[in-house]
Write a structure and sequence with these properties.
Elements lengths: L11 H11 L4 E5 L5 E5 H17 L7 E5 L4 H12 L3 E4 L6 H11 L3 E4 L4 H7 L8 E4 L16 E2 H6 L15 E7 L7 E6 H12 L11 E4 L6 H4 L1 H8 L2 E4 L6 H11 L3 E4 L1 H13 L9 E4 L6 H11 L2 E7 L6 E4 L11 H8 L10 E5 L14 E6 L21 E9 L5 E6 L4 E3 L2 E3 L1 H9 L4 E11 L3 E10 L7 H8 L11 E4 L13 H7 L9
Parallel strand pairs: 1-11, 3-4, 3-5, 4-8, 5-6, 6-7, 10-11, 10-12, 12-13, 13-14, 23-24
Antiparallel strand pairs: 1-2, 8-9, 14-15, 16-17, 17-18, 18-19, 20-21, 22-23
The structure holds adenosine monophosphate.
Adenosine monophosphate (AMP) binds next to strand 14, strand 18 and strand 19.
Length: 542
């Protein structure tokens, strides 16, 4: 027997309507690329999102067409999220930090019809445009007065002019909730980037799931500043989960340095923020160097890479900010787990609690996880066994755009490419990317554990560990360290520091010092580059 409840589809445009009706006066504050601060409300954003939809229709855009954005976190990008998806087209966010060839590949693969581009990214797009085969118009996300003279972009349109004469009375259509809504390519360390194609249903369910108290815990009292860019898995869904609960949003624009972020946190009373470890390192350094305090910030999500223990402790002890360690993937919309303690953790000592907080956290309802061995057999959830992490759920991909990369699922589960443990309390801990794990004498060494241990040394700015070929053990760990300015720590001191913190046979065979650790366009340590840089390197141990 079927139930008798309404079959309302879950659609993204309902979120902005809900916010406009119930939190109409709540502010969205943006530091604009133009340099000033812009403020308006959810009510204003809703009208302008409708104007975006009206403008797209006037430009001949149809449902299903892909519309590219090359833009930072700001109110116009937010309007595009809703205007594009809400009229049935697909909002394709593009990471401007990718190599130009990758951007060309992605735009052509997605067959983007229009490109919405922030002011300071127009010169880069101007250069690439002859290679972008399907783009009919570039839209400069600004007004006429700010448009630089001398741009050689044929058919260039100006965002504010496009919206200016539109009524903003558009009635959102209702369609199948599985209609594609947005597209994000994974950075991929090998091969071409692959497109993850979200739908309305997955996006709305993800927004629900991520707003829950033990996930991001957002509410109408939250003031949320997403540092994570809107081109990196939709800013981890915050432009959807924020309005879903009526939180105030603060968009930082292109300036993500410590000083700019600190100023916005304080001026706008930010309570909740989210980003990758690299930006937090810069913020912590800025605050220490200038003897600053945070007066309103309560929660900082750290995700995208493992949160180093020294960073968790610095936020907590020096600045009174609770770190929410989180894990996810582009293929998971992205939220997989967030770390919140359970009631009984109150009895733990500080060091025991830190052990728990280093884990990537527990999944919300909607994310199923299991770990398997090389033959695909389930491994126990005992917090010790580690294996390939598999996930499934309504906001996890079933396959890549245009079937790229073949079958994405194994028996209905998505293999994450991460190696992890699961414990009986539901906490997951990543020990490595499967490609990065170091295989020494048939046993696995976690590069993340070694990096975390090394980063706890006060002279270390950043550390990375890679496996290097070894005649006897197959592979042994090499520790690569970027020292803090002026620091003189040497190999001997670092190895002594690590001894006792990790198993003896895990100790790196050598330490090499570099001027900088390379990062991917989304802020992760670029291990492929390090392996390339050290391909002729030989360990002293053989
Ligand atoms: P992306 O799709 O670019 O967001 O990358 C997803 C990958 O980033 C995951 O599969 C993990 O390898 C890594 N990652 C994300 N969050 C964390 C975390 N908290 N700790 C360790 N690795 C993480």
């Amino acid at each position: 027997m079927l139930g008798l409840m309404q079959d309302r589809p879950l659609l993204i445009q309902q979120i902005i309507e809900h916010a406009a009706l119930n939190h109409g006066d709540t502010e969205i504050v943006s530091r604009r690329v133009e340099g000033d601060i812009h403020r308006y409300t959810y009510r204003d954003a809703r009208t302008r999102a409708r104007q975006v939809a009206e403008a797209l229709i006037a430009l001949g855009i149809h449902p299903g067409d892909r519309i590219g954005t090359l833009a930072w976190n700001g109110y116009r990008h937010f309007e595009l999220y809703y205007g594009i998806s809400g009229m049935g087209a697909v909002c394709h966010t593009i990471n401007p930090r990718l190599f130009p060839e990758q951007i060309v590949y992605i735009v052509n693969h997605a067959e983007d019809r229009l490109l919405f581009v922030d002011l300071n990214l127009l010169p880069a797009v101007e250069k690439l445009l002859p290679q972008l085969k399907t783009v009919r118009h570039v839209v400069a996300m600004t007004d006429r007065a700010h448009l630089p003279a001398g741009l050689d972009i044929p058919n260039l349109l100006v965002y504010e002019e496009l919206l200016h004469d539109k009524p903003g009375t558009y009635e959102w259509p209702e369609f199948d909730e599985r209609t594609a809504s947005s597209l994000c390519y994974t950075s991929g360390t090998t091969g071409n980037p692959k497109g993850v194609l979200y739908h309305h249903r997955s996006t709305v369910l993800h927004a629900y799931g991520s707003a829950l108290p033990d996930t991001l815990g957002l509410s109408a009292r939250s003031v949320v500043l997403p540092v994570v860019p809107m081109f990196h898995v939709n800013a981890w869904g915050l432009p959807y989960s924020g309005p879903l609960v009526g939180a105030k949003l603060v968009f930082p624009g292109p300036a993500l340095d410590g000083a700019s972020l600190y100023e916005l946190f304080e001026k706008e009373g930010v309570v909740f923020t989210a980003g990758v470890p690299t930006v937090w390192l810069a913020l912590l350094n800025h605050m220490r160097a200038n003897n600053l305090r945070l007066s309103t910030l309560k929660y900082a999500v750290i995700g995208g890479s493992a949160a180093p223990p020294a960073m968790i402790e610095a936020f907590d002890k020096e600045f009174g900010v609770e770190v929410l360690h989180a894990w996810g993937m582009t293929e998971m919309s992205p939220l997989g787990t967030v770390n919140h303690p359970k009631a009984r953790h109150a009895a733990l000592s500080a060091s025991e609690l830190l052990e728990v907080r280093l884990k990537q956290g527990r999944p919300p309802f909607g994310v199923d996880m299991k770990i398997v061995d090389d033959s695909g057999k389930d491994l126990p959830r005992d917090g010790k066994a580690f294996g390939d992490l598999m996930v499934r759920g309504p906001w996890i991909t079933s396959g890549y755009f245009k079937g790229e990369g073949g079958e994405a699922l194994v028996d209905g589960w998505f293999p994450t490419g991460d190696v992890a443990t699961l414990d009986p309390d539901g906490y997951m801990q990543i020990t490595d990317r499967s490609k990065d794990v170091i295989k020494s004498g048939g046993e696995w060494i976690s590069s993340i554990d070694l990096e975390n241990a090394a980063m706890a040394h006060p002279a270390v700015a950043e550390a990375a560990v890679i496996g290097v070929a070894h005649s006897k053990w197959d592979e042994r760990p090499l520790l690569i360290v970027h020292r803090k300015a002026g620091a003189t720590v040497d190999k001997k001191e670092l190895l002594e520091f690590l001894a006792g913190k990790v198993a003896k046979w895990w100790l790196p065979d050598d330490v090499q010092f570099v001027d900088a650790i390379p990062h991917t366009a989304t802020g992760k340590i670029l291990k492929t580059r390090l392996r390339e840089d050290f391909k002729d390197y030989r360990l002293p141990t053989g």
